[in-house]
Amino acid sequence: MPVASKLRWLAAIALAAAAAVAGGAGAAQAAPAPGWRITAVYPEDSGVAGIAAASADNAWTLENCTRPCHTGHDGVTLRHWNGKQWQVINPVPAHEADAYAIGQLVIAPGATSAPWAFYSYKTYTQTAVAHWTGKSWSAPTVLAKNAFIEASVAPGSSSVWGFGAITTTGKPYAVRYNGKSWSEAPAPPIDVVDASAASPTDIWVTGTKIGAAKSAWPMAVSHWNGARWTTSVLPAVPVRGKTKGEPLSIVASSSDDAWAFGYVPGPGGSIVPNDGVVLYHWNGAKWSPVTFPYAESQAFSVSSDGRGGIWLWDEVDPGHHDYLVHDTSKGQWSEVKVPRPADAFSAQIDSIEPIPGTTSLWASGIASVPIPVGGNPGGTEGLILKYGG
Is the pTM of this model over 0.85? Predict the structure, then answer.
């Protein structure tokens, strides 16, 4: 499963992290309870990117820093969930362009699975991928020149994909790991923004169809059945004003259960805040629009709930009313307020991820706190939530 879609990564990468919370930041609460709860809060100037969950005792995430933090430099700290706490894993891949260069982190399901990292190699014109060995990163595999990886999936230990484009030409680009080595793979004819997989022969990507007319509805999906890609434009739906729905993310749980999610750009084409949700469901035969029943000023972070439904985060302004919204896929919607640290006035969830083999989920993002006086930039705290036991 991908750790960060384009929005999730761009939203998280501008954030920061300081020293670890005393007593081991990230330790689970002593008495887990059903529902969403806070499991980790990091200090001011911190943010947590998406989470890659492989099992109940094996998950990985990236904590972002924009001022010196516990790693000794500005940048990214890799954290591993071992079933009890989020441990700091300090090493970064070899020849990383800078501390912000890790753009994708992906892991196959399994208690002993280890993550793959896609990152800028030496310069921003090269991308490499490396595997965590348990003590350090493997020797990197350098991808095609000017390749940029936008999304990744790992439905199995011998099936890992990266999707993106050659930045100088705009040509779609895909790479695949077969259990032994990486090689260029057939690429969907889409400007990919996100990917998801139910199995190695059931992979979906979403984005904008390359070569489509400017007047065309921009949201498209493409499906890999193990042999070829099949691409289709999603049905147009009414949106506010003269704008159109823009693709944002996709989640696939099985051959007859997938969701595609988009947003209606706000003023000036902005992603945050946005002016509406565009949502579709795949039932194994066709994609159908789904009506989102709540008002929102921004929404993203859609994810499978592991049982055929979805969770997503939305916020209603003014007032910073933050919710985690659930749909069971049968039109049974509900919403709950996002748990916040005591000093926070809002919480933005950038990623929600089901935990394989369980009915629980992780969520990560930032909590916004009043900007302090006296030169400390402050403003955000990294946040990790958990749903279920």
Answer: yes
